[in-house]
């Protein structure tokens, strides 16, 4: 059974093929209107995310399938009473594919290991959110005509923002891209993102100045800065304006730069920017739906032709020990034994949340 | 894009045509069973209203369409994080039509201005609820065979009750109707409803005595009196019985009078009245579904023939100023500028909630 | 209109026929894929039960029907504002069949008396849950090839566990079954269950020792012991291990014994047991969906051929008096008069919750 838990579960060729089908769906929707007739998607949203849930549901419905939902409050009670493994074993009796969202890291991997149907990770805590990254990559491809040789500005909360980490993971796999990382010092990219850049040989720059960076960019990827991430309230107040995209500062950007945002926004992009043709964040929504349709089709297709690909190509693993990430699913799932792998740099990591355990072991 | 935000957005001719189609749907349901195949309705219920939500969903399903839902808790978190405008811009990527309910007045108008798909107002605070009024009008038409020359008793909370205000707006447009307004003095009709009666040349009477009024009525429209609306608890206790319809007092009504109620009821109509053939409140439910089916068809139809009708025919508007209605959407929506119009009496009003601003400006 | 409120509403022949169709659905799903096209199920879950709700929804969708939902929070507000009778009268306008779950006993019976469409009881408090019992019986039939002559161990909370009471009701109707009731003394079977055994002439044994009982069993039906049911915390701790099924103690069971559980489990069955071929609790899930499909078909079928069978064959009833069960629906439903029947032993019982009123009357 094939599942998609991490953007790295998909090869470049697979991503290209997903994009081709997504574009074909957009062009010839009626061709696909009955592709999933008689099939059901279960949306297991153990933490609420209306936008992501509706996108998956719309994707399934446009393929002619139906949807079984699990939402908000209900799921929080589910979370207490039952393990992820038991939930997905049960849901495998009711549905044909699962989209899961969970606040604990690694929950989607646990789901994919226990389900007898394909699983799409719709966000596991701060860890992975591969379909958002696919939507981002498709948007870049459709708007810029290429995925290579681009100068990409990522702006906002680069320390905790899951979306930018995944985007970096995705876009450093293509040739000649260059990143400008724009954030307050307190929220700059973490060490491991820097490591990804170096490993991939991707040029990158760190700055706290959006206005200076703006004219150089082909893509500006804005994210939200959450008040609670900044220790000093007066610093937050000063940043609010600094990292807010307005019609005025957009005047200094290239005429073909595109503005992206994973949404929801608060005030980091002025509503007035929406009318600018460079504003692409609602196109991202549409592309999100299209790429999810494409992914659903792919997963059903692989099920039929019975491809037995390992969904988590992390090499040899070993049991034992303890993961020190307190958001890791291993801490709440019943009888789930910790399991680890050694990455290319020799670091021991939890297979569920990819947390470095060697650090803690010291 | 055509939307329905206010009952006044529809002409008498349009209402007549909606009713004809609703009746045809009731007679020949199979003719319409696939009319909306491949289309999706998003029910954006930012405040819970199970009955109204299920009615819209049932309508869409019976037309062969599908439904994407947003409910209760989930939406309350949505409300904090994202503007109505952003929500509907996103949902326009996922669905083909929106039914929206919101606790702030004017929210549906904001939605219709930002969506690229038709919007049905399923209730915006105490402001508008046009599909309830359509259901009421259809019920009167089917049960009485006419919409003119009727004596209509409205009973209960006439001050705050949104449903009766809309009904007055709807039924004063037809010839020769007469209203008897039955309520405790504290909850009598507001000045602007009186104004509507006078403007339309509709005869009306104000009384606090249900028993005296009952024999004169062709229609009795009951509404609930909420305890918290009455200052003195002892007054509420005395009213409870006074405005309760029982098998006993129904004996004094005309044999062909009809009893209506927007539901849910608490105790203002005894359960035993349900078996009386004059009880029409569950027929109202059924008519509510039918008229919503008719409306959905109309909105999709106008979309196809591309009618570009102004959805809010309030004449010239101007920006600036501040709406003093603290339930107005302008107070919570990001970057939404206040906007006003001048009504036929020269009163300045907010285009979102129709609140008179001149009063406050003094 | 036929409804299923209690497992005893169905004759042995009807249960056999439901099982035959369920097995046929499993074998030839495509034959049934459009059986309920154009039909809608309303899932009225006034108390959350994700598993049961999804099972009903999956059943309806696999028959080609659609679903209208009512979930968690929303319903709790519904519960305050409106009677069960009014809710189902309204929902009868929107849907073709109702599955209802409610925390008050007798709520499903009230629903069936007021709906104009069939009602399936999906659990009314601690009272009835007939579709769970049907799933259990189907699982036993499919796994053991018979419903007679079996030694059935029921283990865990036998005092409050609704599932085991229903199972006893169901399985004592078949010949030659024998029960071993395994529980701590505090949670042993109540008097009325003992009475059912005696009435049916079913052999039974009471013990607190799972290990001793295990080798004798054809079926082990495990249930969860809730911490709050045991007064002394130290006793709960000692029981936890005692009533936990592990790979080790399963070694002493017959090779063809089957392990059942209504789920969700907490720790009374080790996750490692899941891989044992005797573990049948996820098969129960699948069978639950299949038997619900079968039941939906039967109820629609009987509606068409217009069978007017009394849904609650409790004999003569009388009005008046008061039910002393504080979880009985008569205490919250508007204008619902208490009603009683006299059972075979001369005990006066509430028709809604089957509570013995004679005891209290003393």
Main β-sheet, spatial strand arrangement of chain A: 7-6-5-8-9
Major beta sheet summary of chain A: 5 strands, parallel
Oligomer: homotrimer
> Cα-atom Rg of chain A, whole angstroms?
20 Å
- Percent helix among the residues of chain A? 25-40%
CATH superfamily (homologous) name of the largest domain in chain A: Aspartate/ornithine carbamoyltransferase
The beta-strand count of chain A equals: 12
| β-strand amount of chain A | 15-25%
Q: Helix/strand/pairing class of chain A, anyone? A: alpha/beta
Q: Helix and strand succession of chain A?
A: HEHEHHEHEHEHEHEHEHHEHEEEH
Mean pLDDT of chain A: 89
Low-confidence parts of chain A: 305-312
Q: If classified by CATH, what would the architecture of the largest domain in chain A be?
A: 3-Layer(aba) Sandwich
The outline of chain A comes out as globular
Largest interface, counted with CB-CB under 8 A? Answer: A-C, 28 and 29 residues
Distance between the termini of chain A: 38 Å
Number of domains of chain A: 3
